[in-house]
Design goal:
Blueprint (H helix, E strand, L loop, with lengths): L4 H13 L20 E4 L11 E4 L5 H11 L9 E6 L5 E6 L2 E7 L6 H11 L5 E6 L3 H11 L6 E4 L10 H13 L4 E2 L10 H14 L8 H9 L4 H7 L19
Parallel strand pairs: 1-2, 3-6, 6-7
Antiparallel strand pairs: 3-4, 4-5, 7-8
Helix pairs in contact: 2-3, 6-7
Length: 259
Amino acid sequence: MTGDPALYAELASLLREYRFPTVSLLPGQRVPDRVAVVLTSTGEIPKIAHPKVLGASHGADRASLLAALRSALGKDAPDSGFVVGIDPGPTPGYSVLAGDAVLAEGIIAAPEATAKFANELLERFPARPFLFRVGLGDRVARTRIVNALWKVSHNIELVDEHGTTPRGHRRPRDAVAARRIASLPGRPVHGTEELRIRPGEIANLQRESRISSGGTHTIPRSLAVRVLEGSLSLADAVEASRPDPRARGAHGASRGQRY
């Protein structure tokens, strides 16, 4: 229920994607008795007479909004805490659990984006306790995730994720792994950790870069370190180090160079 056409389109698309049954109303119209929760803009909340009203803004965080919707629909106990499992990687998988109920699952754009992701959840549920469980795999991504999370929450555990990641396409696979991580006890985190890049991790990323480039070249160590630290994407590093076609001549096509 909103008078904002752009926000309506965003919310309607989200509700259709996750197959929530809906009724479309304009502000001022009577809300049918069968409606369990009303979605609207944050500014229109005071105008709506209903016991369960959720506010959203343009580009609202989907994970926290989905969790709030499912919680409002009674998918969890109202006084239960949340456990958020995070499967570390360049695009971490996440799963938000309340007891046995899965309220939201998906992928986070980058390890550092877990801070915004966590903050959105904490703001959406200010009275509910949260525990964030991060898998031990992918040491670099895990360290970046924990350091980002520590800015918004100190309730973090590290979980031995061995055997949690099933085979399959990466996106649903990572969300399933995150769900399993959320269900396992871990050891508490007591602070941030210095990120130290190891030679083997640089070499592995250089191999990935050569595959990404179609075999034409390998990114230099300096760019590999920046990618691992999170200041540059692998795609941008591959593009930045692409050989200049004008440099090709009598010696034939450049095969790229390892550094």
